C-alpha cells in the first residue's frame, strides 16, 4: 500500500504543500500570504475519485492547514470538468477486508475533519460533484459552483443504501423534506437547480471568480474571534456528527456488512460495467 507523504515548499510569497502518492500529487495546498486563506486542490486524475490514499491525503492536508494557522480553507479541483466523482468504486468491489476497514475509517475521519474543521470552509465547485463529491462540498460552510455541471447524491438510483452520516451532510444544508425527496429519488441537480434549493450559495462564471467568492465568504469572519467561532461551529454541528464521534465502530460494522453483501456487490458490478461501457461505445 502506498503511504501518502507531505512536503512543504517555499514558493515566492506562498507556501505550497503536496500530499503525494507514487505517481502524482493527490492534493495541492497553496496558502495566500496576503489573506492567509489556503486553497486545497484535489488532484487525482482522471476524476478525483476518493480511494484510501486520496482521503488520507485530504485529511492530512486539512490538518496541516489547521496547524499552519491559516484563516480558512477553499476546497477545489485541478480538473476543470470534475470536482469529485465520489468514492472510488474499485475500493468497494470484492474488497480485501483489511483495506476495506482502513478505507471506511479514512472516509469517516476525512468527513469529520472537514465537517468539524475549526476554520471557515468553502467549496469552489468547478466541475461535477457526485455522491461523496457532493458530501464533501456539503460539509463546507459555503458553496460556489460553475454553470453546466451537476451535483447530488444518487446512491439509491444504483442500488446503494445511503449511510446516516451522508444523510446528515445533506441535512446540515437542506430542509428535511427536500433531503428526503432528493435522496429517495437519487436526484442529481444542475447548477441552476442546486441554487434554487440552496444546495449551493452562489454561481460563478469561472474558477477564479468562484475562488474569489469563497475568499470573500471566509473574509466575512474577519471580526469574529477564531476560537469562539470554532467552538460555536462545533456545537452547532456536533449533533449531525454524533454517530461518527460516539460510535464509529458501529457505523463501520454496519457499512462493512452492507458493502460485502451479495446484494451490494451485484449492483456494484452492474453499475461499474455501465460506467466502463460508456467509454467503449
Ligand atoms: C445501513 C448501512 C448503510 C451503509 C452503506 C454503506 C455503503 C454504501 C456505499 C454508498 C456510498 C456511495 C458514495 C459514493 O461516493 S459512490 C461513488 C458514486 N460516484 C459515481 O457514481 C460517479 C460516476 N462517474 C461519473 O458519473 C462520471 O465519471 C463523471 C464524474 C460525471 C465524469 O465523467 P467523464 O468526465 O465523462 O469521465 P468518465 O466517466 O469517462 O470517467 C473516467 C474514468 O474514471 C472512472 N470512474 C469514474 N468515476 C469513478 C468512481 N467513482 N470510482 C471509480 N472509477 C470511476 C470511469 O469508469 C472511467 O474509467 P475508464 O477510463 O477505465 O473507462
From TrEMBL:
Could you tell me which InterPro entries the record lists for this protein?
ClpP/crotonase-like_dom_sf, Enoyl-CoA_hydra/iso
Molecular function (GO) terms listed?
Answer: delta(3)-delta(2)-enoyl-CoA isomerase activity
Tell me where in or outside the cell this protein is found. Mitochondrion matrix
Where does it primarily localize? mitochondrion
Quick one: which pathway? Lipid metabolism; fatty acid beta-oxidation
Highest rank taxon of the organism: Eukaryota
Q: What are the alphabetically sorted keywords of the record? A: Acetylation, Fatty acid metabolism, Isomerase, Lipid metabolism, Mitochondrion, Transit peptide
Q: Which GO terms describe its cellular component?
A: mitochondrial matrix
User: Which reactions are catalysed by this chain?
Assistant: (3Z)-dodecenoyl-CoA = (2E)-dodecenoyl-CoA; (3Z)-decenoyl-CoA = (2E)-decenoyl-CoA; (3Z)-octenoyl-CoA = (2E)-octenoyl-CoA; (2E)-tetradecenoyl-CoA = (3Z)-tetradecenoyl-CoA
> GO:BP terms for this protein?
fatty acid beta-oxidation
Q: What does this protein do?
A: Key enzyme of fatty acid beta-oxidation. Able to isomerize both 3-cis (3Z) and 3-trans (3E) double bonds into the 2-trans (2E) form in a range of enoyl-CoA species, with a preference for (3Z)-enoyl-CoAs over (3E)-enoyl-CoAs. The catalytic efficiency of this enzyme is not affected by the fatty acyl chain length.
Q: How does it assemble?
A: Homotrimer.
* Record-linked PANTHER family: ENOYL-COA DELTA ISOMERASE 1, MITOCHONDRIAL, ENOYL-COA HYDRATASE-RELATED
Provide the protein name. Answer: Enoyl-CoA delta isomerase 1, mitochondrial
Natural source organism: Drosophila albomicans
Organism classification, top ranks? Answer: Eukaryota, Metazoa, Ecdysozoa, Arthropoda, Hexapoda
Amino acid at each position: 500500500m502506498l503511504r501518502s507523504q507531505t512536503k512543504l515548499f517555499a514558493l515566492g510569497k506562498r507556501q505550497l504543500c503536496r500530499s503525494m502518492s507514487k505517481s502524482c500529487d493527490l492534493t495541492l495546498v497553496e496558502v495566500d500570504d496576503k489573506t492567509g486563506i489556503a486553497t486545497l486542490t484535489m488532484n487525482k486524475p482522471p476524476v478525483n475519485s476518493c480511494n484510501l490514499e486520496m482521503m488520507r491525503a485530504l485529511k492530512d492536508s486539512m490538518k496541516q492547514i489547521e496547524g499552519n494557522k491559516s484563516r480558512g480553507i477553499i476546497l477545489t479541483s485541478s480538473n476543470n470538468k470534475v470536482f469529485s466523482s465520489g468514492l472510488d468504486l474499485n475500493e468497494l468491489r470484492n474488497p480485501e477486508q483489511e483495506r476495506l476497514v482502513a478505507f471506511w475509517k479514512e472516509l469517516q475521519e476525512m468527513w469529520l475533519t472537514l465537517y468539524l474543521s475549526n476554520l471557515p470552509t468553502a467549496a469552489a465547485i468547478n466541475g461535477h460533484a457526485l455522491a461523496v463529491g457532493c458530501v464533501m462540498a456539503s460539509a463546507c460552510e459555503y458553496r460556489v459552483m460553475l454553470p453546466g455541471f451537476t451535483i447530488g447524491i444518487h446512491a439509491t438510483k444504483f442500488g446503494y443504501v445511503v449511510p446516516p452520516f451522508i444523510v446528515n451532510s445533506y441535512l446540515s444544508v437542506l430542509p428535511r423534506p427536500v433531503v428526503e425527496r432528493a435522496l429517495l429519488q437519487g436526484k442529481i441537480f444542475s447548477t441552476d437547480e442546486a441554487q434554487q434549493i440552496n444546495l449551493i450559495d452562489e454561481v460563478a462564471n469561472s474558477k477564479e471568480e468562484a475562488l474569489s467568492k469563497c475568499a470573500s465568504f471566509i473574509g466575512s469572519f474577519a471580526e469574529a474571534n477564531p476560537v469562539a467561532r470554532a467552538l460555536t461551529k462545533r456545537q452547532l454541528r456536533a449533533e449531525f456528527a454524533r454517530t461518527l464521534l460516539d460510535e464509529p465502530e458501529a457505523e463501520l460494522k454496519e457499512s462493512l456488512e452492507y458493502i460485502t453483501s451479495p446484494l451490494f456487490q451485484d449492483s456494484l458490478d452492474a453499475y461499474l460495467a455501465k460506467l466502463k461501457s460508456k467509454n467503449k461505445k
